[in-house]
């Protein structure tokens, strides 16, 4: 099993996203997988100009930047992989600009004049299946505690999956990066000890991906767990908007979480 991780963080291999990729990869290597990471920030990635040269004869399915930047090289690595990992921090409720600029370049590999159907029965155009119709794990990182922060990113990749016949092998939504020192406090005593379990679950996710081609629901849940352990009934009632809007109640929850539940 060849796994290629694509890190869309602007902080490159110094950031929390890479820290989490490394944990996942550790588990995959333990299961015998060959792993590589492409850190987009270390590469020359030009944004699509929308020039449509890739749709015209003479330059058909080739980008004008193919020999001028690193995207064609990264696409070759993607074609050779059995499993992809897309990893991105949340930047203002979305993926990073870098990840989006990179993904936009897929356009040059597809003939938009050829109508096809996705496996989910969605009308779409031709795609380069060897490049993009690959199972993938999504890792999102964020500082905020709320799931809603990364919902857009997850929704995007679910749509991506349905149109591009790329099965979702697992989703890891890491929240509260700032509260746990973005991984830099590993080994030190942390105010949120559950994070160690989370990291173990991410390693297990890597192992599962390499052995079963997917992250089990249980591991995915543990890897994406919140770091503030609240009683189940509090977690449940927080799903109701009218509870959330009760500032007095929510401030008490916040104070309680600082003391630790
Ligand atoms: C420009 C920018 C925008 C960000 N926007 C959000 C955001 O909307 N929500 C959030 O929870 N964190 C946000 N963050 C925090 C990052 O998502 C978080 O620190 C992440 O772990 C960074 O990953 P990295 O260390 O790999 O760069 C933002 C950070 C930056 C630099």
Explain this structure to me?
By secondary structure, this protein is an alpha/beta fold. The chain has two domains: 2-227, Flavodoxin domain (Rossmann fold), CATH 3.40.50.360; 230-261, no CATH class. Helix content is 39%, strand content 15%. The chain is built from ten helices and seven strands. It has a five-stranded parallel beta sheet, with helices on both faces. Strands 4-5 form a two-stranded antiparallel ribbon. Strand 4 (115-117) and strand 5 (123-125) form a beta hairpin. Helix 1 (16-30) crosses helix 6 (194-212) and helix 6 (194-212) packs antiparallel against helix 7. It is globular, with a radius of gyration of 20 Å. The model has no long low-confidence stretch (mean pLDDT 95). The site of flavin mononucleotide (FMN) has 17 residues, from helix 1.
Nearest-angstrom radius of gyration?
20 Å
Low-confidence stretches: none
Report strand order across the widest sheet: 2-1-3-6-7
CATH architecture of the largest domain: 3-Layer(aba) Sandwich
* CATH topology descriptor of the largest domain: Rossmann fold
How far from one another are the termini? 42 Å
Helix proportion of residues, in percent? 25-40%
Task: List ligands, each type once.
Answer: flavin mononucleotide
Task: Just give the CATH class of the largest domain.
Answer: Alpha Beta
Number of domains: 2
The CATH homologous superfamily of the largest domain is termed Flavodoxin domain
The secondary-structure element order is EHEHEHEEHEHEHHHHH
In terms of DSSP E residues, the strand content is 5-15%
- Secondary structure class reads alpha/beta
Number of strands: 7
Largest sheet: 5 strands, parallel
Instruction: Give me the number of helical elements.
Output: 10
Question: What's the rounded overall pLDDT mean?
Answer: 95
> What shape does the CA trace take?
globular
């Amino acid at each position: 099993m060849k796994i290629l991780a694509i890190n869309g963080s602007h902080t490159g291999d110094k950031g929390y996203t890479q820290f989490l990729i490394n944990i996942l990869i550790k588990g995959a290597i333990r299961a015998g997988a060959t792993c590589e990471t492409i850190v987009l920030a270390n590469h020359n990635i030009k944004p699509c100009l929308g020039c449509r040269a890739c749709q015209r004869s003479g330059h058909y399915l080739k980008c004008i930047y193919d020999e001028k930047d690193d995207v064609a090289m990264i696409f070759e690595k993607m074609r050779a992989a059995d499993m992809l990992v897309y990893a991105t921090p949340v930047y203002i409720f979305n993926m990073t600009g870098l990840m989006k600029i990179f993904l936009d370049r897929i356009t040059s590999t597809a003939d938009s004049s050829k109508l096809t159907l996705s496996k989910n029965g969605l009308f779409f155009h031709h795609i380069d299946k060897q490049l993009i119709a690959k199972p993938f794990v999504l890792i999102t990182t964020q500082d905020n505690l709320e799931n809603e922060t990364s919902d857009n990113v997850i929704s995007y990749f679910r749509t991506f999956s349905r149109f591009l016949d790329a099965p979702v092998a697992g989703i890891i939504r890491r929240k509260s990066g700032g509260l746990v020192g973005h991984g830099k406090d590993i080994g030190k005593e942390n105010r949120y000890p559950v994070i160690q379990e989370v990291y173990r679950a991410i390693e297990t996710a890597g192992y599962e991906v390499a052995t079963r081609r997917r992250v089990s629901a249980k591991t995915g849940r543990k890897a994406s767990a919140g770091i503030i352990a609240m009683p189940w009934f509090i977690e449940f009632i927080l799903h109701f908007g009218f509870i959330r809007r009760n500032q007095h109640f929510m401030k008490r929850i916040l104070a309680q979480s600082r003391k630790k539940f």
